[in-house]
Amino acid sequence: ALNFNAGPAALPEWALKEAQNELLNFRNTGMSVMELSHRSKDYEAVHNEAQSLLRSLLSISDEYEILFLQGGASLQFSMIPMNLLQEGQTAYYTLTGSWAEKALQEAVKVGKAEIAVSSKENNYKNIPVLDATSIPSDAAYVHITSNNTIYGTQWKQFPTGLNVPLIADMSSDILCKPLNMEQFDMIYAGAQKNLGPSGVTVVIMKKELLERSSDSLPTMLNYNTHAKNNSLYNTPPTFGIYLLSLVLRWVTDQGGLEAIEKKNELKASLLYNEIDNSNGFYNGHAELDSRSTMNVTFTLNSEEATKSFLAQAKEAGFVGLNGHRSVGGCRASIYNAVPYENVERLAQFMSDFRKNY
Ligand code: PLP
Question: What ranges do the domains of the chain cover?
Fold first, then answer.
């Protein structure tokens, strides 16, 4: 399939084949990795490999904890304020799309949370500028969504000059390019786009933030529980973490994040060039300086043209090109694992469709 799904999304074929090869007999254990005890040495090696590959790909220092949690990025929308937003403090959210809105909605259930800046009036077509001086120095944290999966926008330069912790939901663009982890106090991502299958959520957070969590929190919702137990307090999603380790090996073998970034830019430019050279036949949703390299969102001139485009694309074997139900139109998700050739085929299809329509 020519898979352009937004998530769960295409995974590297190498990782899936490797998992297939060792599915029934994992590294001479005579069992599937799914059948191993999460307390066994064999599983522990997988768990620790996933952590250490992430640490080296993102150059994460010992100041940060790497956690493998469950509940998706959505549970982080609640856990973040529950653990990090203290009485008398305010958390600030940048509103850049539906996921950012959801994160804010959960925060106001827990404590005081406000909008730092928003591009909602512009139908989330751009990433607004966050003025660091507008954030009081006693704020709990600032939350951003690094890539807006539904609208196809992405932060190009992260906020600087903040005197408070910066937290980013990187669910749809983690590992798409090198990252200066020092800019962040916490990042998190549901795995099902650039990291692996759904079921595991990666949280990378500064150890000093752990001091904020109150002992009165439910055990499973307290970051300290997971940090103290190497994310093995209860049964982790072992198969998901195993696949994560394979995806991270694949990313490393590709040449790491610099190489991945180059490939992602080439892939994205194939589609954006087609949009820009179509004389208005295709209209990109995102403003030029906010365009995502992960989710390319566009509409056609009419409802009818959009319908016809999607129907013919489906016929031609393209999967997942429908825009999110809240914005309509089309969206091509071109995460790390989507092969360059598949994006080339989509660009060609867009060009042919335009000429024939
Ligand atoms: N944040 C972003 C940016 C997303 O794209 C998504 C899902 O697509 C979520 C959060 C929600 O993630 P989950 O389904 O893992 O809760």
Answer: 13-253, 256-356
Q: Look at domain 13-253 and name its CATH class.
A: alpha beta
CA of 190 to the centre of ligand 1 (A): 6
Q: Is 99 a catalytic residue?
A: yes
Cβ pair 178, 257 in contact under 8 A: yes
pLDDT at res. 237: 98
Average pLDDT over the chain reads 97
Task: Kindly state which CATH superfamily the domain 256-356 is placed in.
Answer: Aspartate Aminotransferase, domain 1 (3.90.1150.10)
Query: 75-87, pLDDT tens digit by residue?
Result: 999 999 999 999 9
Active-site residue, 125 included: no
Rounded Cα distance between 150 and 46, Å, is: 33
Band of residue 328 on the pLDDT scale cut at 50, 70, 90: confident
Q: Does residue 171 line the site of ligand 1, with CB under 6 A? A: yes
Catalytic position from the list 193, 250, 263, 267 = 193
Tens of pLDDT, residue by residue over 142-178, are: 999 999 999 999 999 999 999 999 999 999 999 999 9
Which of 99, 155, 173, 250 is the catalytic position? 99
To which residue do tokens 């607004």 refer? 128
